[in-house]
UniProtKB/TrEMBL annotation, chains A, B, C, D:
It catalyses: L-glutamine + H2O = L-glutamate + NH4(+). It comes from Reichenbachiella faecimaris. The gene is glsA. InterPro entries: Beta-lactam/transpept-like (IPR012338), Glutaminase (IPR015868). Homotetramer. Its EC number is 3.5.1.2. Keywords: Acetylation, Hydrolase. This is Glutaminase. GO terms for biological process: glutamate biosynthetic process; L-glutamine catabolic process.
């Protein structure tokens, strides 16, 4: 396949700018609400190490829930299949912050991308690692190939102060026996992880490793087999977009993950990874223009995995 | 890719036979409970028109919910994107026969593969077609390339007599305004559709059309664009295995659909379609050996779409 | 206690008329929507056979769910404590037509006053009686002391045509094994029962028997012990007002039952029974002015049972 | 009414001892599990200041959820009807510790006797009072007429260490905006309140005030009108026994409240209050023998309020 990806990204940018300006910047985290709503960036990188970009692709933004993919990769590397005793692999069929299902299913979150599941993943990291924070940053820096990756402590603090529902999740799961570490330690780590800032380019680089099966997956000592990487991709496709995961599979057809910072990263195995950023979200919590850009991308490149 | 698929199917058959004999034949439909639990067949056909098979691959069995893919293809062809106003594309996150979600979501089923969704699809066919039953059989016969496809009226009758929950679904959705036709007509059609009998070979043939993007999808006048076919595949991946869809994506990594008759059909785009049959089901309603066979197949052939 | 009940009823009528005219006549049953919204009647009768009334107390109206008390009294008389294996005695904590709880609790309705529970009660009458319809009318005529009690067949037909949710309930419970008779027979009987028409005077007479423990409870051969009558009263207090039962106990403090025709009947043991009618309903399905009238009555007479 | 209450209590004790020894001492609070399971005491006191007792009626036990009645009386006295904007008066229809309903109903607990509701009541006390703990003990000492009432700090500590679900409730409600004070302060106060120890005699004394309408209700400055006291009684009847409130109304017919320490207190207005203690609980969390004793009491004395 030879594609003029740069031309396609430019077409997408034009078409996106012609769209009505829908959606709302996440406002439940006060610090995030300060981001300029008009930002738009996109970066695509291929297994041949080509790079294509438009817009604010080199501007750092809060990756939020996209970070759950990184902590999950680490925990999967540490525990292997045993991880799935503590968190499921099924789509939730409910908004990403629902506590109902957790109660009915005995404190086992449906999957690692609902908040409760991501908190269990953090609990695993805290139990298994001597210096989990150092390991996390070593891992994401190795993944992105950039040492300039850290978290925004103002955002982390802002999230902690408003994150009562996540606190409820942790205590609920502690009540059901699926949380080992102290609530405060888990939440501190979780908010740091969510407040990591990356550019579209860095995210695309990190996600390319999920699609380049010719290369071993190993970052800062956390390694996954090809089969495990494919399983992570399957999880992203089934569960990566909150209660809109089916829509993303249906309309875009790539494995990916979104965050309420407005970012989406996705991978087309054996060919490319792509990251897009636009802060305005739809009512499901996904970037309106990010989602639409990727729908345009797979339509124009016929790169749906199906 | 050149693979010795015949050798691989034979290996799978051997490995499957060595497994403990778990699961239970569906017994809520009395007529289905009469099937010999030891049946096992598998058929794989490629876009190059090659055919590989082991076991009872030429024996007819009740395709049950696999039929939902066919009626959906017809309704999608008839209504296009308007179909999704009446049925969603999100995984259900609940067992396949749950009425709870339907109540909370105003009679709009989560997707066309939960029973309620398949009943809405039938409602569409009854409204749009002059002779929907004739069209259904023309469609499946064209899809399979076999005129020898019909339904088992004893099974259909047996299902109707015990299908109180489906009757409840239809009336519930009528109460919410999402069903137009008479309950009895919908249910009669639905049970005929579910009672269609096919062989593994016929199922594999029919599913190959979902993966051969070089050929137009058009059967008995019902046509889909390549993009629409890919969307059907996405729906199968997200929602095709009841409350185990995530597991199937995770472990097998193909778009597919299962039925309580013990069949599973799946497609690996641009390369092959496969059907497997083994009547014993796990507690989620999926064929134990069918699921495991396909996990072995994609592991051995490295054919996960991810 | 000597009270000038006539003066109190007149005060209530004046105060009620001074209130803002809130609420809506039930419109999901087209025939009921034709009733004049301004009707207001109230009748109080004592264990000393005194009668007090204001307004349209002698006008017939559709008693709707109040009829559930009568069919329940008959079924309780027939089965005794065995009845409670098929229907519970707990408040539902959900709107009166919720199917969710039914699914979680295996087809056993929470109590006999939710629609599903009333349908089980009808199922009992159909199984136990040779001519259940004749028995029902013999019972209600004996209870009211009036031969002029029958049902409105236009309302019954109107309800049947729009009662898809009740049809769903019956089939759901049949699926779970808690319904024996044919759905159509149960629903026909149920809609006749709900379409019974009475005056406030007749309702008050019938309810006085639940509060006059000096007299045996026996109508048309259906008898209850004093203890059983008290248990019916307890059920009315806990569950008689849909999702507003707590409010009624809290603000009025009497055992009673409401219907979407705008009627409420209630009993103050050893002293009086009262019925009130005003068609406009609040969003919980209870008569706005009926509820308020009874709150005024128990405040003025200090007759809360607590 | 002249009753030989002493004889009746003795009959009850004999009959209770002849029953099979069912139930289990609460074991989720380790300290409570140490109580001897064979304890049984009962105390009845009348509005004429008569006292009747059998068994361990003078032994202190952990009143647990019965304490919710006392904190509610205080909060109701402080806020009046405004209290019901923050907590409902409807039965929950779910087990006492369910978080599901809370999520669906925006953090407004169904009633003040589910744990979430009792935590909101505590939040009110912490906001409204300068020294809430001193006020609580002044109130309960005045209610019981005994200065010898305090809490067991070992039990309070034991509850706090295992009370993850209550912590989840508080944070869930904070997320929804219905909790003002710090989680830790609320929980500390709540566990002290639940760990209050009383004898059957003290409990009966305190509950008699809810049934003696000739006397003003005023303890340590917290006063309620007669109408407010009746409303508290209505709440106890509708919601006082977790998911068995309907059963208690149905079989006993008194306003009352139970606790997982095995105590139940109840009131028959204008005549008596009664408290019973037996530590073994049924699966709904109510004292098996306590419940049965009160059923015998109202049967023998015909004292159901209905």
């Amino acid at each position: 396949m030879t594609m003029d990806y740069q031309k396609i990204l430019q077409e997408i940018e034009v078409e996106i700018n012609a769209l009505p300006d829908d959606g709302t910047v996440a406002n439940y985290i006060p610090e995030l609400a300060k981001v300029s709503p008009d930002r738009f960036g996109m970066h695509l990188t291929t297994v041949r190490n080509e790079h294509y970009a438009v817009g604010d692709s080199e501007v750092k933004f809060s990756i939020q829930s996209i970070s759950k993919v990184f902590s999950l990769a680490m925990a999967f590397s540490l525990l292997g299949e045993k991880l799935w005793k503590r968190v499921g692999v099924e789509p939730s069929g409910n908004p990403f912050n629902s506590i109902v299902q957790l109660e009915y299913e005995n404190g086992i979150p449906r999957n690692p991308f609902v908040n409760a599941g991501a908190l269990v993943v953090v609990d695993v990291l805290l139990s298994e690692l001597k210096d989990p924070e150092a390991d996390l940053f070593a891992f994401v820096r190795s993944s992105t190939g950039s040492n300039d990756v850290s978290y925004n402590s103002v955002v982390a603090q802002s999230e902690k102060e408003t994150g009562h529902l996540n606190t409820a999740f942790v205590h609920m799961m502690k009540a059901k026996g699926n949380i080992v570490n102290e609530a405060d330690e888990i939440l501190d780590f979780y908010y740091k992880q969510c407040s990591i800032e990356m550019t579209c380019r860095e995210l695309a680089e990190a996600f390319l490793h999920f699609g380049d099966n010719g290369l071993a997956y190993n970052h800062a000592g956390f390694s996954l087999t090809t089969s495990q990487v494919k399983r992570l991709n399957a999880l992203m496709l089934s569960c990566g977009f909150y209660d809109e995961s089916g829509q993303f599979a249906f309309k875009v057809g790539l494995a990916g993950k979104s965050g309420v910072g407005g970012g989406i990263a996705a991978v087309y195995p054996e060919e490319f990874a792509v990251a897009v950023w636009s802060p305005k979200l739809n009512e499901k919590g996904n970037s309106v223009r990010g989602f639409h850009s990727l729908e345009l991308l797979t339509t124009k490149t016929e790169s749906s995995i199906f």
